[in-house]
Write a structure and sequence with these properties.
The chain has helices at residues 16-27, 39-51, 66-80, 103-131, 152-176, 199-211, 217-228; strands at 7-11, 31-36, 56-60, 85-88, 134-139, 178-185, 238-241. By secondary structure, it is an alpha/beta fold. It is globular, with a radius of gyration of 17 Å.
Length: 248
């Protein structure tokens, strides 16, 4: 896909991977819809993009709220006229043992990581089918293909993202000329770890930073751009990306 002039929706664009990919897409000439709950953080990303000569549009969106998602997608299309790329990036990663019974965190992960992705896809996919072209990138995780203590529910949600992505590719690729990619990162320097309320797992994640150089959001953005810029007949269906010194 030639990225110049295309329009993308990036969820979770206020920080981390979402912010990184939004800025990198803008450099490529993509008009970027910045979606997240925090307008103030999105505004900072918007200002960085526009100061660098890019185009962006701020969308207050809670992916868990179906009405919020529909309103956000409609506003993006009204503003830019079209949508070509969807980056389903919004996600959360609390960590705790099952017998800690942090049940609210379990349900939050299901609501954001699974239902949130489905809510956005539900609203964007018909637009891509109508124009018979587009690319959807879903952010899964190493936890979508390997299991880790403390991440039982998170692993389940990311396994779902990987499975849903590949079946969606099978069903809509040839039929509607829409490409689907699942990105599965290892350790990335983002604010996901700030969401960990269990002191032991939070310390363990901080200790990991002393053992390896984490990937940056720009590293993940580069992989997405590689998939997006592949020739039109090529679908990079999965990308598994790790720090070179991440052995697990």
């Amino acid at each position: 896909m030639e990225l110049e002039g295309k329009t993308a929706l990036v969820t979770g664009a206020s920080s981390g991977i979402g912010e990184g990919v939004a800025k990198n897409l803008a450099i490529k000439g993509v008009k970027v819809g910045l979606a997240a709950r925090s307008i103030s953080k999105l505004q900072n990303v918007y200002e960085d993009i526009t100061k660098a000569g890019g185009e962006a549009f701020v969308i207050e969106m809670d992916v868990v709220d179906k009405n919020s998602v529909k309103k956000g997608v409609d506003s993006l299309i009204k503003h830019f006229g079209v949508i070509d790329i969807l980056i389903n990036n919004a996600g959360i990663m609390p960590a705790s043992d099952i017998d800690a019974f942090k049940v609210d965190e379990w349900h939050q992960m299901i609501d954001v990581n699974i239902k949130g992705m489905l809510n956005v896809t539900e609203n964007v996919l018909p637009k891509l089918i109508e124009k018979k072209s587009g690319h959807i990138i879903n952010i899964s995780s190493i936890a979508g293909r390997k299991l880790f203590k403390g991440l039982a529910v998170y692993c389940g949600t990311k396994s779902f993202v990987s499975a849903f992505s590949d079946i969606m590719r099978m069903e809509i690729g040839k039929r509607h000329n829409i490409r689907v990619t699942s990105i599965q990162p290892g350790a990335v320097e983002t604010n996901l770890y700030n969401q960990i309320t269990d002191d032991g797992y939070k310390k363990g994640m901080e200790d990991l930073k002393e053992e390896m150089t984490f990937l940056s959001p720009n590293d993940i953005a580069s992989s997405m751009i590689y998939a997006l810029e592949a020739p039109d007949h090529v679908d990079v269906s999965e990308m598994f990306i790790l720090p070179i010194d991440q052995e697990w």
